[in-house]
Design a protein that fits this description.
about 90 residues; about 25% strand; about 0% helix; globular
């Protein structure tokens, strides 16, 4: 980490978002809209979760297969667009 960079391992920076349903085994389109006052999660165009949040840092997407059992994460496309405010990352 560099000098004043926050420690993102701190609990205040972490939030687990549990999304019900079965989204494995078939292609899906996931979207995260980081807006100045909230974060909106969508799957295939339907909003599945929203959190109030104050976003003050530049964010970047990260993909991870953190489930056990040898699953494979495949990412066919990752788009990150900066369109002023709010920033939309897909």
């Amino acid at each position: 980490m560099c000098g004043s960079d926050p420690d993102f391992s701190e609990p205040k920076f972490q939030r687990v978002t549990v999304i019900s349903g079965n989204w494995f085994g078939t292609p899906q389109r996931y979207r995260i809209d980081w807006q100045p006052t909230q974060v909106v999660f969508s799957i295939d165009g339907a909003v599945v979760a929203t959190h109030a949040a104050s976003i003050e840092l530049s964010l970047r997407p990260l993909m991870s297969d953190s489930t056990g059992g040898g699953g494979i994460l495949t990412v066919d496309l990752l788009e990150m667009t900066l369109e002023g405010s709010p920033h939309r990352h897909q």
